[in-house]
Amino acid sequence: MFTDSLDDYLDFVVAYAGNGLASGHQVTILVEMIAPTAMTAWLRSRLPDAAAAFERGALQVQAARDTYLRGGGFDPARVMADFDATTRQAQAAGYPGVWASADMAWALLDSDLIADVMDFEAKCNQVLLERRLAAVCHYERRMFDAATLHRVRAVHPFSQDGVGLRFTRTTNPPGICFTGHADATNRQAFSAVLATQKHVPGPVTLDITALHLPDPDVTGEVIELAAARTDATIIVATSTMADHLRILVKTHPALHRVPVVIHSRD
Question: In a 10 Å sphere around its CB, with 0-12 CB exposed, 13-18 middle and 19+ buried, how is residue 58 labelled?
């Protein structure tokens, strides 16, 4: 999420925390631009039930750098493991999962971190598939340069026109159902989610019927995943997209040895 002022960010946090609590989830706010004590006071003043939520542990405010830079440096694997542990603890306490909001201004503490942070952000899309953790990363536009903001868009599931990429893991059949919009602006997020299926044994189904794919190169990510797998990939798409995918399959040098089935559904 991008904001243009601290006021916009504070208003968002109130709305986000309120919605998370209303849904029964544990809510964690990771702050950098504002001190944890100040954010806690802000939420107490704006959310009627904030005091009780803080008391029972349903609402928490922490310094973002204490999460991301614990131990003195940014260790993506450790941070991912910490998020997983936090989510499991919340579920053990009776919550369906965690809603987290993270102010990413901490990444400005070291300019060399940005590349690693962007890779980490892309991989976080894989965690969101589990539906146990919902997360919103906050970027203040005035604090990040244009090149970094462009990379931020690429690793997050929203596109240039504001239409988001949505994805849900399916079990019957096993695979992923995509909806929304995937293009060059959120290609890295799309690719990261597809990558979760690379080593899944047995057939997987990718339902892209309700996914708008205007960019041929991004569409090709689906075919590249099928080519990287050893078991069958089943793709469900609109008739127009299915015809296009069949052409890509026929011309891909690796797909003569990997089973790919394409179904059309309008």
Answer: buried
55: Cβ contacts below 8 Å, ≥ 6 apart: none
- Give the helix ranges, DSSP H, for 144-238: 146-155, 187-195, 216-228
pTM of the prediction?
A: 0.73
CATH number of 165-264: 3.30.750.24
Q: Coil, helix or strand for 98?
A: strand
* Beta carbons within 8 Å of 6's beta carbon, 6+ residues apart: 33, 34, 140
List the domain boundaries for the chain: 2-155, 165-264
Question: Residue 22 has what pLDDT?
Answer: 95
Side chain identity at 85, as an amino acid letter? A
Nearest to 123 by CA among 74, 156, 162: 156
**44-55 per-position pLDDT tens digit:** 999 999 999 999
